[in-house]
Prior knowledge:
This protein is mainly α. Helix content is 75%, strand content 0%. The protein has helices spanning 3-16, 23-48, 54-69, 78-88, 90-93, 96-103. Helix 2 (23-48) packs across helix 4. 16% of the residues are buried.
Amino acid sequence: MRLLPVLASLILFSCDSTPDESKAEKQAKAVCNCATPLLMLNSEVEKSQKNEDFDRIQAQFEQTRRCIQEQRIKPEEIPELMKALSVRCPNLASSQALTEELLKN
């Protein structure tokens, strides 16, 4: 009878465990959160086809870049980050030029 509560708690804890996020996955999540407003603005401007929003886009780009720089991503971490971004934030990862520009130190 004493074995039943122990067995039940082992089953409960084994089902509840999920693998921890890797450092690259955490960084990708943070970068995606930083870039989401810029991506949304770019999409909005693209749909409206108005070029007069350049100043807003530039300001949002600079804000996004500062946010990403606050993550203190090391150059050697970028390849793993790019892999994680392709899963976590495919809209950003699909624009390689934008991603590279945002990740410049």
